[in-house]
Design a protein that fits this description.
This protein is α/β, with parallel strands linked by helices. Among the domains are: 11-175, Rossmann fold; 202-211 and 234-368 and 381-388, tm_1862 like domain (pyruvate-formate lyase- activating enzyme, Alpha-Beta Horseshoe). The protein has 17 helices and 17 strands. It has helices at residues 23-34, 57-69, 85-99, 108-112, 114-118, 132-141, 239-252, 270-283, 299-308, 321-328, 334-346, 364-376, 395-402, 432-446, 451-460, 468-491, 497-503; strands spanning 11-17, 38-44, 72-78, 103-106, 123-125, 153-157, 160-163, 186-190, 193-196, 205-208, 211-212, 235-236, 258-261, 288-292, 310-318, 350-357, 382-387. The strands form three sheets. A nine-stranded mixed β-sheet has the order 7-6-5-4-3-1-2-8-9, sandwiched between helices. A six-stranded parallel β-sheet has the order 10-13-14-15-16-17. A two-stranded antiparallel ribbon has the order 11-12. Helix 9 (299-308) links the parallel strand 14 (288-292) and strand 15 (310-318). The structure holds cobalamin (B12) and iron/sulfur cluster.
């Protein structure tokens, strides 16, 4: 039976899978509500770092009962991380099987792997959906026969798929509705609990993006993918729009203690940053964290960030200069990185280094080089280690697939490595040598082991073939660091049950 008959309810259900933070769902919901459409947001399970949980029957039952109770006519699911594909397929199967409601899937994964998702969804929305999805929704609820031709979508009608061209990227980001944290029409489903209201409404951390896009195209990163949508890829909100949103959120949620700017590289536009650094301390004044990349950290950049109130910076350095250049298409050389470290540190900004391991072909010498780099870093510092994950659409993965070097089964979507080893854990099965280097890096970052000891351990090759003693030491150091971080967060009112549920895993700790 075609799902595109007359609608059987007047609401759109926007479903977020394993992602209670989901910016996209809140943003799309706000846009649709502003246009007068009734929207029900459903947060279907939360994400747990490296500990994936299959959905249980009670959760599907809860979902079906909300769909019925809220008179939903269209189910729209956000599928951002590719690893969730199988669960979304299952979810669509359950919804279609019990209700015959049409299921539309949008987000990053259908953008990079449309064929794979349209195989089980009734329609997909590719790329940015702020313009295309509201058109699709209105055509659906008014039974408009042009529905299958909606720009930016692929729509299945009978055995045929209408593949429509992508819509232009949103040029004016200020024109996009602010994410809605207020509406009562929100549900969270987690195991046997069903809770009404926005799960993030009182969160002490407010995450926001001031820009979309990046100046680089590192080969492992989503920014190396282009779906052909016309328009400039790097875009900014105005400072006024960001500060107004922050003021409004703080008025609604006085518990906010910290802001995190999730931009790929925060403040790359110098004029924008100058205005921000002038106004943010006066108009908001909360400590904030941000992401950056060594090539943009000039003296002025570091000083403006400090002036604005930047406390922690997440700086992607990934690997040694040679690995970065040859395998990851990254620009920064070691001298640039060292200069960025010096400037940020001098301005009192604390650095979390984002580094990637498990990259095939990295030599022992290069692993040692990374160790030497860490030896020089001014303390204290944090280390967020990530395990290379093959995300579909990235240049690296597409190249490896076309040369036949990578088994398609290892690409996220089919693979689900994101669920078990994204942030690095030492218990993950690796070659003893790799575990040994990682344990050493963790000891370096812990700040409790003197540099001369780590130097001695590296030089002597202690426990190299059987790294268990080093792993135990790294575990103890991580436990200590976790306790310190938790204590600081409790003091600042930043520790939430959501964070604990996501990150606490005493058996197999995430390194930091
Ligand atoms: C910021 C960010 C985060 C933030 C959270 C953001 C938030 N609060 O929503 C943090 C750091 C927490 C995070 C975590 C993770 N992330 Co992330 N994240 C991003 C980033 C950089 C921006 C996402 C964003 O919020 N954009 C703004 C919103 C408004 O836009 P959007 O998501 O692009 O959505 C638009 C369209 O996609 C579409 N759309 C989205 N959903 C839907 C649904 C429907 C029905 C429709 C019609 C349309 C639609 O319309 C939206 C509006 O135009 C993206 C990269 C990127 N540029 O997309 C990676 C990205 C989505 N993340 C990714 C991953 C893997 C993760 C993690 C799984 C990593 C991990 N294990 O820790 C977790 C999972 C979190 C979770 N709970 O699911 C990957 C996914 C890659 C893949 N193929 O699997 C990406 C692409 C980055 C990458 N590494 O390549 N992430
Ligand atoms: S600098 Fe960071 S966000 Fe930009 S392309 Fe490289 S990895 Fe991606």
């Amino acid at each position: 039976m075609s799902p595109w008959g007359p609608p059987r309810g007047d609401a759109v259900a926007l479903v977020s899978v394993y992602d209670v933070e989901n910016n996209a769902v809140r943003q799309l919901a706000a846009g649709l509500r502003a246009a007068g459409r009734r929207v029900v947001e459903i947060y279907f399970k939360d994400w747990r770092n490296n500990r994936f949980e299959e959905p249980i029957e009670a959760e599907f039952k809860a979902l079906l009962s909300i769909l019925a109770q809220e008179r939903v006519g269209l189910v729209a699911i956000s599928l951002r991380a590719s690893a969730y594909e199988a669960v979304v397929r299952q979810l669509v199967g359950v919804v279609r099987g019990h209700t015959s409601l049409p299921c539309v899937v949008g987000g990053w994964h259908p953008t990079v792997r449309p064929e794979s998702v349209i195989a089980f969804a009734d329609a997909i929305v590719r790329g940015e959906a702020d313009v295309s999805f509201p058109i699709f929704v209105e055509r659906f609820f008014s039974s408009d026969p042009s529905l299958p031709l909606t720009p930016g979508t692929w729509v299945r009608v009978g055995g045929e798929v209408h593949k429509n061209a992508p819509v232009p990227l949103v040029a004016e980001l200020d024109s996009v509705a602010w994410r809605d944290y207020e509406s009562g029409e929100k549900w969270t489903i987690e195991r046997h609990e069903v809770i009404r209201g926005d799960p993030m409404a009182t969160d002490p951390l407010f995450q926001v993006l001031c820009s979309i896009g990046c100046i680089q195209k590192c080969s492992f990163c989503h920014n190396s993918f282009d779906d052909g949508a016309p328009g400039a890829r790097l875009r900014f909100r105005t400072v006024s729009s960001v500060l107004d949103e922050l003021a409004e959120r703080r008025r609604r949620n006085p518990r906010i203690r910290r802001v995190r700017f999730d931009d790929e590289i925060f403040g790359i536009d110098r004029r924008w940053l100058r205005e921000f650094a002038e106004r943010y301390p006066r108009e908001v004044g909360l400590p904030f964290d941000f992401l950056t990349e060594p090539t943009v950290v000039s003296e002025e950049y570091a000083s403006l960030m400090a002036k604005a109130g930047g406390q922690w910076v997440h700086m992607g350095i990934q690997s040694t200069e040679a690995v970065n250049r040859e395998q990851l298409s990254r620009r920064a050389d070691r001298a640039t990185t060292a200069a960025a470290v010096e400037r940020l540190t001098r301005h009192g900004i604390r650095i979390r280094y984002l580094t990637m391991v498990d990259i095939p072909g990295v030599t022992d010498e290069q692993k040692r080089e990374l160790f030497e780099f860490f030896q020089q870093l001014p303390r204290p510092w944090d280390l967020y280690l990530f395990s290379l994950t093959h995300f579909p659409g990235s240049q690296m993965v597409e190249d490896l697939l076309s040369s036949g070097t990578l088994d398609p089964a290892e690409v996220e979507g089919t693979a689900r490595k994101t669920f078990s080893q994204y942030r690095v854990e030492l218990s993950w099965p690796r070659e003893p040598d790799d575990t040994w280097w990682i344990a050493l890096y963790v000891l370096q970052a812990s700040g409790v082991v003197p540099r001369r000891i780590t130097e001695l351990l590296a030089r002597s090759g202690f426990a190299r073939g059987k790294p268990r003693p080093l792993v135990l030491a790294a575990h103890a150091a991580t436990l200590l660091k976790t306790a310190q971080v938790a204590a600081r967060m409790v003091r600042n009112g930043e520790l939430t049950p959501t964070l604990v549920r996501r990150w606490w895993n005493p058996v197999s700790m995430v390194t930091m």
